[in-house]
Fold these 2 entries.
Entry 1:
Amino acid sequence: MPCISVSGLEKTYRISLRGSGLGGALKGLVKREYREIRALHDLSFTVEAGEILGYIGPNGAGKSTTIKIMSGIMKPDAGECLVAGMVPWQNRIAHVRRIGVVFGQRTQLWWDLPALESFRLLQKMYGVADAEFDRNLDELDDLLGLSPLLPIPVRQLSLGQRMRCELAASLLHSPAILFLDEPTIGLDAEAKIAVRHFVREYNRRRGVTVILTTHDMDDIEELSHRILVLRDGELIYRGDVEGLRAATGAKRQLTIDTVGDGEVPRPADVEMQESGGKLSCLYDPRVTDINEIIASVTTTRRIVDLMSTWEPIEEIVARLYREHAR
Amino acid sequence: MSPYWALFRTEFQQYLQYRIAAVAGALTNIAFGFFRLFLLTAFYRAADAVQPMALPDLYSYLWMGQVLFSVMPITGLFGPDAEEIRSGAVAYRLTRPVSLYGFYFARVLGQKVTALCTRSAIQLAVIFLVLPLVGLSRYGMRPPDVAMLPFLVPSLLLAMLLSAAMHTFVYMTGFWTISTRGSTSISYAVISLFSGLLVPLVFFPPGLRAVADILPFRGIYDTTAMIYNGASSVSQALGGLVHQGAWFAGIVLLGLALARRGTLRLEIAGG
């Protein structure tokens, strides 16, 4: 049975418009104009228990809106949503006991107090028994290396340190579902890796269902079992990362180090760029055989080294966004 | 331990750290206290009419206002909590298994109790200990009327609760206006006038006085100050307590209704 099921979700925002300049401002005093922005349209999907779901889409696609609806903060205009058997907005308090939420752009910790004080407060808010709290904090400390951070006022933590505390704060009450809204935003490479490692390991140990929104494709590749791609409030892809490559005609990138300065004949359907003996070829493996490229290169050059990879997932996703642009 | 009690305690703990702010606030209140005191003294000297309040009582009344100032739903209204709806931070609050109104009320009350224990306590110490030392005891505060203590303590408590309820109510208006700056400015004006902070209510002309008596705002200051001075009869003091209690209940209910309807129409933008 799916852990989350969403069907036919609709949400429209009313945005107030203001003319520019003094004239527009004065007009706005008397008559307000509004425009309706459709954030979600007929959105349906399911999430299985224990799954890590990557939820991606360009800015303004409706990802955060969906998260806010599933976490019980906001009510949709229409549609159904069941999270672990409950309608989130109907009984918010009972619902939020079973979920953990991290909004990467905000903080849930008391700014001027040590993180441990916020943790204790959250323990009281969720009514977590002391024994369970200690056990959870121990485990989170083990995975996130929290001990040295706990006595420091939160305002004096670096963003990476704070994000480790934010993750811990969202899990102290052992939620069954974890919503991560851009948990790696603004983090350095090391902190990002720490967050990813933690999410993967915690999911493996506890079987927690994770819904992850992010713009970082490394997050998606390394964590998500399955992805949903949202554009203008509608799903444009659902499946795994491999499937995304197939669906979008993802290309492979072949990099060849060569010596010699003869002109290289370019095979049809291959994009080729050269800088200082290094050839960079982008090709669709279903159309072009790699041997064909290598053969044409060896007509004029000698190969020193070569490497072949998929093109970055960023490119694939950007292409997918462009194809579905309104 | 209830979540609201834990919130109250955490807020108390957090605000206890701001020691310099407490001292600075207390000294500001003292300075403005003298300013108001000399202003009204000058009025007394210039007028021939018999005043409804003797000068020493007036001074006590004024100082009570300065001491309670940090608790009134005026101080801290521009703080970070006030902007939580506008900034979207309210999103996190809604992911907690507690009532949104209860969350903010517990926090606001925690902040007010801290203010009473620090800023107001420093002021009282200055008024009762320092003023006599520097020969200014005639401008000080009279001791409370002992016979009225059984009314004074509950009245002070109710003044705190009523202040917290009004304060939380202003926050909840953010669900409609997004920013609470407008409601804050309006409440600042209304509260200064009708609580007795601007001019003691005994000086009000009868018509305006009748309005002030009905409105809730005297409950955060005037009622308590009059009991302190022993200027209220027992029945007036009792009536004052009932007035405070009834408005406290009423404003809490209004605030709860705002929070309930507000969360249903809430749209959290960005990020």
Entry 2:
Amino acid sequence: MVEGANFSMSCPIPIREYPTVQMAHGGGGRLMHDLIGKMFRAVFKSPLDRGHDGAVIDSGGGRLAFTTDSYVVRPLFFPGGDIGKLAVCGTVNDLAMCGARPLWLSAGFILEEGLPMEDLWRVVRSMAVAAEGAGVSIVTGDTKVVDRGHGDGIYINTAGIGAVAAGIRIEPSRVKAGDAIIVSGDLGRHGVAILALREGLEFGCSIESDCAALGGVVADLLRCGAGVHCLRDLTRGGLVGALVEIAETAGVGIEVEEAAVPVSEPVRGACELLGMDPMHMANEGRMVSFVSAECADAALAALRGHPEGAGATVIGKVVAGPTGRVTLISRIGSRRILDMLSGEQLPRIC
Amino acid sequence: MRYIDEYRDPDGVRRLAEEIGRATGRAWTIMEVCGGQTHAIVRFGIDGLLPEGLTLVHGPGCPVCVTPIEIIDRAIGIASQRGVTLCSFGDMLRVPGSGKDLLRVKSEGGDVRIVYSPMDALRIAEANASREVVFFGVGFETTAPANGMAVYQAARRGVKNFSMLSAHVLVPPAMEAILSSECNRVNGFLAAGHVCAVMGYEEYEPIAARHRVPIVVTGFEPLDLLQGVLLCVRQLEEGRAEVENPYSRVVRREGNAEARRVMGEVFRVIDRKWRGIGMIPRSGLGLAEAYAEFDAEARFGVGGVSVEESGECISGLILRGLKKPVDCPAFGSRCTPERPLGATMVSGEGACAAYYKYRRHEAGPAGGRNNG
């Protein structure tokens, strides 16, 4: 138990408003951003903190990227993936976003009493297939079982280590005015697929999660050279969450052309119906790349050479300011702010 | 995408905006009634396309925003009881009551669930016979028929553990209240297209005639909104005060007869307090005598809960079109979506939420990002 000066300061998350943890504290919006920034980062004070998806460690012989993520998705199986594939791809992607070649993963399982063994077997096989596809090995792990009613079947934590090649420096601070902003494919599939399944919504066609490992496509992208400045996967909080975080960390402005943002017809239709914005929806196999303008064509070609990047397209550019602001230029030419949501995206009432 | 792209066509938008410019000879103030329209206007920047002197003000048509704080407190009181499951639409959960909101009740252990349809709440009741399941029914005429249908079906199926906390409100009495106010500045209305899809627009004809205001039934896409404004301006310039319906792809004069029948059977018209505005006679829907056993206020004994609003929140003035969100000294500083003073800052259709989301950088120093 840590005691002392650091803990005599008042809790950074105002207890009067939030005496208990709410779902929105994990929703990928402003509340989660504040919880991480003001509580975890402020207290843990990582010497490696670059506002990134993982930490890059100089081990003497070379640089390693190190990251961790937990997976609590419900339902466990969904069109396009399952919690096991997600747990491998998500952590592989966090390593790739640091410019690393993903190598080793750990797998920690929290299993609920009564979980059908067949379900666990399906998840574990799926993890093995995903790990093989991503070129990583699962090298250590842990298993705990909790009482019935104290978990949602399976929770998985994976941590990952990857190697960062010499000369590669991928981080928000390298983002500069003039950079092109590229998304690797159409947005919102994972969020809509999960929502549709969880709530029993039917849209007349199946929407599959985009869940995929991005290590391969990133490796090719990095061959474009020093013009690749920053990468970020578009998980909770979606495209907007990622852009706002990077604009704030890098101290730049961002402009996005609404007409250029790729969204499939079924996702767009579902979002229109529910009053949600595909740019806020979660993805599990999409990323945004910040590359120098000269490098943009080569980056697009590299991305499009992979199935995970086949729909890559330029959606906007980095501008000098106002710093921290992301602006959308609408189809009819008007401009508005894009911002993180407060908590979770909730469907509208009418 | 069909029914979307053709109503967001940039050339069409430009043409209509120019036509409005040519048609406008004097200064007019037009109110869009529905919060969905407010959000579309701010999101697409429609007001920025209009000539100087032509002002859009935002109306009371956000059901979440006008639900009085005491009804939120009643919902919180019900949801905090053991053995109760409270279901509502997502928006409602973040609206502050006098002490907390429903999301907080949930995080403290209350069984509060988001549903997408009131029928989902009824299904939860049928599947959990030992629990009391309460649907927090909020909305204008658009949502009332579906909410009413849940009660109607509960009665037919004999579901005894289901009830509804009704906070339904009606649009025409609110428009009358705005027009009758001494400080009214509204010259014409864009009526709420979805409300009219249910109710039709007969009931607006006496309002247009009595108050000499044009009322144009209007949709939610950029071209719909500009078309509504254009027809309204033309009427004003020509001295006409009629009800017009350019939203005929959705709205008929008589509305949806079956939806109106269900509403008429399940509900009765009652006096209703509106958050920030006050009591408006015959402006709400309570459960009809025949369905009184499904009234959650009576079942849980929370009908007497009564509280006062935050003194600093000006949402009442905003909902009547007298102020804009950026006129509020608390906007973006002491009032944000994370820490709202009033419901207009949290609802997906609230005017303050629209301004905060899309254009708070225009509000000056107080409206800057709140990192505090």
